[in-house]
Amino acid sequence: MDVILSGTTDAVTRHHRLPPPDFGLAGRDGLRYQVVTLGASGVRSRGRSLANGAFRDDAGLTERTTPRAAPAVIPVRAPEPARSAPRAYRLPVPERSSVVLMGTSVYTDPRVPSLPAVAANLAELRAALTGLFGEAVRTLAEPALTDLADIARSARSGSDTFVFYYAGHGFIGSDGRLYLGLRETDTDMPAFTALPYERIAQIIRDSPARDKVVILDCCFSGRALKGTMSPTPLATADTAGTWVLTASSSTAMAFAPVGERLTAFTGALVEILRQGVDNGEPVIRVGDLFAPLADLLASRALPVPQQRTSRSASDLALAPNPLGPEHLPRGEPS
């Protein structure tokens, strides 16, 4: 590091670089300082010793002026601390993973409005997740109760990752439980005509997958995060290696703005997956999503999402990161 001697005149300040001295003083701010005196004849004897012979006895500064005497304070700063190492991420292994994207857009009950944006939700989310999960991603549009066994088989088919997504209407039954709307759902009897989320919770708990992801884009979806008014809590989010993300709280509505191609929640989620996050990594992890998603929805005066996650699940990579390095390794079977 060079040492800078500053001489101040009435008109101009001159700076001259000298080799670093061997001694200094500690200031109140924790920095170390060297003090030398500048006079009309240049750097005096101490300045010469600081310069280690850089000036002759009769030599002044390179440019002689008529300065007013003033000490020059030269800070010697400590090096900046090294940046912390980036957080680890885990790539899914497509051959041992399963992703089920389920959505209901049309309902036979005339009291239940259709949700045309759901079809686009499924298509856009499939495109985003295929980058890391490949052929493990499949879409289940307009499901029926008979599809529940197929979902369970998918959850049990792999030991690496299981992802379940639902978009549609959510209902609260007379038992206080959450029900996911199906085409034939009768709003007077959701317990018999809709998909009980408790069944999905059981599928998640029984899955051998290392990490499980549940994303719910429906009204009252926050009930998946905690117990309901029923005696038995859903407890999905308490399962190790599980991340549950919901579009709303347990009592709030989710939104599908008229004229928009996607629903509000999934639209914001897809927007972040498309644009990327500034984490310096080639992938977007589970733990990278919630904060920007909540901020984006809040900025649009939309319901704030809810989440619950375990530490292990937060490191799972969901999609390539458009803002990250170009090189992207692939998860390999071990």
From TrEMBL:
It comes from the Bacteria. One of its GO terms (biological process) is proteolysis. GO terms for molecular function: cysteine-type endopeptidase activity. Residues 304-334 are annotated as: Disordered. Transmembrane segments: none annotated. Residues 104-279 form the Peptidase C14 caspase domain. InterPro entries: Caspase-like_dom_sf, Pept_C14_caspase. It holds the Pfam family Peptidase_C14. This is Peptidase C14 caspase domain-containing protein. It comes from Actinorhabdospora filicis.
